[in-house]
Amino acid sequence: MLATLSTGQLVSVIIGLLLLSAFFSSAETGLMALNRLKLKNDAKTQKGAWLAHRLLQKPDRLIGIILIGNNFINILATALTTVLALKVAGEQGIVFGTAILTVAILIFAEITPKTYAAIHPERIGYPAAFILTPLLKIFWPLVWLINLFTNSILRLLGVPAEIAEKALSREELKTLVIENDMLNPDVHQKMMINVMNLEHIKVEDVMVPRNEIQAININDDWDSIERKIVGTYLTRLPVYQDSIDHVIGILHIRTILSMLKNSTLTKRKLKGILRKPYFVPETAHLSGQLREFQNKERRMGLVVDEYGDLVGLITLDDILEQIVGRFTSQFGDRGLQIIQKSDHEYVVKGRIAIRFLNRRLHWDLPTDDATTINGLITETIKDLPSANLTLDIEDYRLTILEVGEDNTINTVLIKKLNREED
Q1: Contacts with 39 (C-beta within 8 Å, 6 or more apart), sequence order
Q2: Cα–Cα distance for residue pair 219/241, rounded to 1 Å
Q3: Any idea where the domains of the chain sit in the sequence?
Q4: CA gap 417, 422 in Å, rounded
Q5: For residues 388-415, b (16+ Cβ closer than 10 Å) or e, as one string?
Q6: The pTM is what?
Q7: Tens digit of pLDDT for each residue in 209-238?
Q8: 201-324 is a CATH 3.10.580.10 domain
Q9: How many whole angstroms separate alpha carbon 161 and alpha carbon 139?
Q10: Does domain 339-416 match CATH 3.30.465.10?
């Protein structure tokens, strides 16, 4: 039958087959290159996107119908090219015909359509879905049979037959956020990336250290307790008995405002309105702790180490500030900002957490014996700190700039050393 076709007819059929091969090649690349998030959104309003989404839910079937069509067409094109070559140049023309067909397939049926589809996946993928969907229904028995043999071979090789749609990894999602031009790079991008970074930040990195916790000793005289309540800028205060290690409850200032105004507040009443303290481990990640605060309807937690000893305090505001930044710079602000003086030189507060500093500046100051810069220096010198004292700790030079009246370090200049220059 093929031999009865004229030379012109054979050429026309081969060109048509090359176009069909180009369709299957571009459809495969276009559908696989579709952005899954945009596809799900477009599927709500566009029929082509909806069909493409359904096809991609069973990628093994989609690939099956595409490869069946493409291979059938290419084999048929090869057979017709052989007949054409025999007609034109005899047996010796078969080699030239095969070479010409190979180049034509590579250029017009593979490279060009696949490149275009990779650049414009929606222009190719959505319309192609209208054709591939009925083809898959028509040739479903053949596709099923081929996939049966293919999946059997995959199982023998230890490869699972089911192909699951993988979710975006954290880093891929970050890249998607950064490259999205619709987001304000100075506000929304930073906030969304900070939310994803909560998984890597621990409670101990942002907590208020134990020595900075403002609290009330219930055994103090009443005038002292009242002055502390009236003078505080905080809305919640831990209440302890003799030692901060023995917290008996959390006081919400708002619950005693009316009694303070009417001068009816007493120690007994104060104890009666305390809320049970809530403890959190220092190794908990902020993402999990944020959910715990929400589930337990809490805004403050007392941080304990592995032995149950109190090491700090964390509030919901501390976590939210990791997402949106500082809320305020009023007198209540802990002011743990890092001020850069020059290359590799920074001025920081003595009470800043070492882990927080390491994370912000990509440093590796030791954290085994202390949690704050103040504690690190004191533990190293084994003496009371003094201004202008300089010491080297591993690859860092620390200079004490200011010491408070209680012998705690207020500010420190830290320089990362270059050992080769030294």
Answers
A1: 49, 52, 53, 56
A2: 6
A3: 2-156, 201-324, 339-416
A4: 8
A5: ebeeeeeebbbbbbebeeeebbbbbbbb
A6: 0.50
A7: 887 788 999 999 998 998 889 888 888 999
A8: yes
A9: 21
A10: yes
